[in-house]
Design a protein that fits this description.
By secondary structure, the chain is an all-alpha fold. The chain has a single domain, classed as Orthogonal Bundle (Cytochrome Bc1 Complex, Chain D, domain 2), CATH 1.10.760. It contains seven helices and no strands. The longest helix is centred in the first third of the chain and has 20 residues. The chain is globular and about 65 Å long.
């Protein structure tokens, strides 16, 4: 009985520590990150219809593949693989990109 109790306490403690070390992605965080890192090329509406976006042939981020509930890892992978993002790569973490993915879902639902 004591051993089971200790295991439960250890597992619970690990879960609490993990949740504190990796905050959940939020739409508010994603919106702020998007505004400071993505708007110049992808535009406030995510369509890529800005002068810089047109020049770079920026993708529309309101495409359903970026708006899916499970799109966060796809957004991270696509961002990291795109050579156009090389200058931005060191400025945003994978957690930042996951937050941006939450914001992209919101943008896509407005379209």
């Amino acid at each position: 009985m004591h051993r089971t109790y200790v295991c439960i306490v250890l597992i619970f403690s690990a879960l609490v520590l993990f949740s504190l070390s990796s905050p959940a992605a939020s739409a508010e965080d994603g919106a702020a990150l998007y505004d400071s890192n993505c708007v110049k090329c992808h535009g406030a509406d995510g369509r890529g219809d800005t002068p810089v976006g047109r020049a770079l042939k920026a993708a529309s981020l309101v495409d359903p593949k970026w708006a899916a509930d499970d799109s966060a890892e796809a957004v991270v992978s696509a961002f990291r693989a795109n050579p156009k993002h090389k200058a931005m790569a060191s400025k945003v973490s994978d957690d930042d990109l996951r937050s941006i993915a939450v914001h992209l879902r919101k943008l896509a639902s407005v379209q």
